[in-house]
Amino acid sequence: MSAANPASSGLFIGGSRESGSDVRVQNVRAAIAVANIVKSSLGPVGLDKMLVDEIGDVTITNDGATILQQLEVEHPAARLLVDLAQLQDREVGDGTTSVVLVAAELLRRGSDLMQTSNVHPTTVISGYRAALKAAIAYVKSHLVTPVTRLSDEHLLMAAKTSMASKLIGNESDFFAQMAVQAVKSVATKMSDGKTKYPLSAIHILKAHGLSSLDSRCLPGGFALNATRASQGMPTHVEAASEESTVKICLLDMNLQRHRMAMGVSIQVTDPAEIEKIKQEELTITKRKIDTILATGAKVVLTTKGLDDTCMKYFVQAGVLCARRINKDDMKRLAKATGGKIVVTLADMEGEESFDIANCGQCKTVREVRVGDGEMMQFEGCVGGPDGGSASTILLRGPNEYYLDEADRALHDALCVVKRMLESSSLVPGGGAVEVALSVYLDTFAATLDTREQLAIQEFAAALLVIPKTLAVNAAKDSSELVAKLRSIHAKSQKNSEDESLKNMGLDLVEGTVRDNLAAGVVEPAVSKIKSLRFACEAAITILRIDDRIIVAPSN
Question: What is the CA radius of gyration of the chain?
């Protein structure tokens, strides 16, 4: 790196500057280094990474976004790939490793093209954009299988494909069923008539002990990591009859003995008056509690504190209370039970009142022991007016590392099921789409008579990094398998009678090629299209950089 010399750098500020091919080469090297970290974790037989942070906390995972998030990446170009993985995880949920690998391979091939063939960066970028446009159009017209009536079978296939590379892959049948059940239970009808599946309404709780197969889903139910405020309160509250429900008050305020406001000064000459003041404080507190109890609520939950005075009144009324509830959990519970979180009892007239319409409703509330602690379980939740509900998945497992990784795997599967339900289209997995696009783009490049042809050919070759890496991680001969797959897809694209071969992908267990659509290895089409878009845009962003100016920190 050049020294801070204004005459040589052309800058009149303290710092350094690099420009031209040197910057581009450094950026590409940094991106490839990041991709190499996650490369071996791709696919159903990918390996896990152990990450230890500065305080000794251990994370064991093969989720690309989690691995890159834990790394302290300093190089600005490499950080772009880390952000890319985060974006993919946020938008799609799955495919974080593959999107980083494709972006890094596009960068490597684009950089080689500029250095060896002396192609201008603008030509490479326009070629990549043309290739992306052609690839997405081909996926939509030829590779997508529209599912007019989406059955649970298609959803289970997609969820199992997502879990195949995870720690819970061996129990994918069990967890896929759980993921589909949880996502379908939170279906919400929007004002435009469309149905959405908000994953924020699905609450995942983790508890040590038992086997992972003892995990369970509570569709239309909810579980909170909370316990009774007092041992004198009931552990079980249920509706008095089939038609009635248990009312739940959801509060975001302190329930404590009323005290005079700060700054108020009272001079008392008679000691008996002090007792009257204390008694009046208790009376005001009792009035506030009675206002809440007048709604008929049998369960009171608050995100803040609950002191002994208020607790005494609730115990006398036989009400189940819990305090210090997590705010996000409270919002989910409000959605599940059709209630509203109340932040104050004051109304417009300056009086204290509690609208019964703000109460949530369910059939049963009970405190149950799970693992080393207790949790509150709400069953038969009524749901909100928009039909929205909430769901809870209770994960069991031997230790913290297993539960964290199972949580991440389940999150990916939930995202895939959500995307599948909302888009109703799927594509075959196992490298089928990438190889089909590679063959198509090679043919498409030959139809162009401009220099963009070279960039499109490199784009086509870059897509093969996915099937090659899948085969290498499975300890198979990647050259032979990819060559065989390319030959099959070339045949399917030339002859209309062989069009059914377009679904052929890799079988990494047997080391052969097979029809992955028939084998149930599928992904949502929207996930594949977004992955291609994100990878291409990230590569273009880095290839456009030809100057780096680093300002020296001020003393």
Answer: 30
Sequential DSSP letters for 55-87: T--EEEE--HHHHHHHS---SHHHHHHHHHHHH
Nearest to 526 by CA among 139, 182, 65: 139
| Strands (E) located in 445-545 | 504-507, 512-515, 522-524
Lowest-confidence pick of 117-126, 269-278, 544-553 = 269-278
Q: How much is the pLDDT for 555?
A: 62
CA distances from 204 to 414, 434, 442 (A): 11, 34, 45
Residue 83: half-sphere exposure toward Cβ, Cα within 13 Å = 12
The pLDDT value given to residue 97: 86
Non-local CB neighbours of 546 within 8 Å, separated by 6+ positions? 19, 20, 23, 24, 121
**Residue of 96, 123, 295, 337 marked active site:** 96
Q: What is the pLDDT of residues 75-106, one digit of tens each?
A: 888 888 888 888 888 877 777 888 889 999 99
Of 107, 25, 33, 34, the C-alpha closest to 65 is: 34
Lowest mean pLDDT segment, chosen from 297-306, 463-472, 511-520, 542-551: 542-551
Q: Is 196 exposed, middle or buried, given 0-12, 13-18 or 19+ CB atoms closer than 10 A? A: middle
Instruction: Using alpha carbons, select from 183, 222, 175, 152 the residue that is nearest to residue 378.
Output: 222
Q: Choose between 125 and 167: higher pLDDT.
A: 125
Look up residue 143 and give its DSSP letter: I
Buried b (16+ CB within 10 A) or exposed e, 474-490: bebebeebbebbbebbb
* pLDDT tens-digit map of 9-28: 454 556 777 776 778 888 88
Instruction: Say what the pLDDT of residue 438 is.
Output: 92
How far is residue 245's CA from residue 505's CA, in Å, rounded to a whole number? Answer: 53
Looking up tokens 């878009």 gives 533
Tokens of 23: 């910057």
Residue 245 bears catalytic tag: no
Two structure tokens written together for 273: 């008056």
Which residue among 48, 63, 94, 404 is the active-site one?
63
Q: Among 96-105, 347-356, 430-439, whose mean pLDDT is lowest?
A: 347-356
* 195 is known as an active-site residue: no
Map residue 412 onto helix, strand or coil.
helix
Q: Is 96 a catalytic residue?
A: yes
Distance of alpha carbon 232 from alpha carbon 241, whole angstroms: 24
DSSP secondary-structure letter at 1? -
SS3 label, residue 44: coil
Known catalytic residue at 22: no
- Residue of 48, 89, 329, 412 marked catalytic: 412
Among 442, 469, 470, which residue's Cα sits nearest to residue 458? 442
Catalytic residue among 59, 61, 66, 97: 97
Does pTM surpass 0.90?
no
Cα–Cα–Cα angle for 283, 287, 290, rounded to 5 degrees:
135
What is the rounded average pLDDT for all residues in the chain?
Answer: 82
- Count of CA atoms in the C-beta half-sphere (13 A) of 349: 4
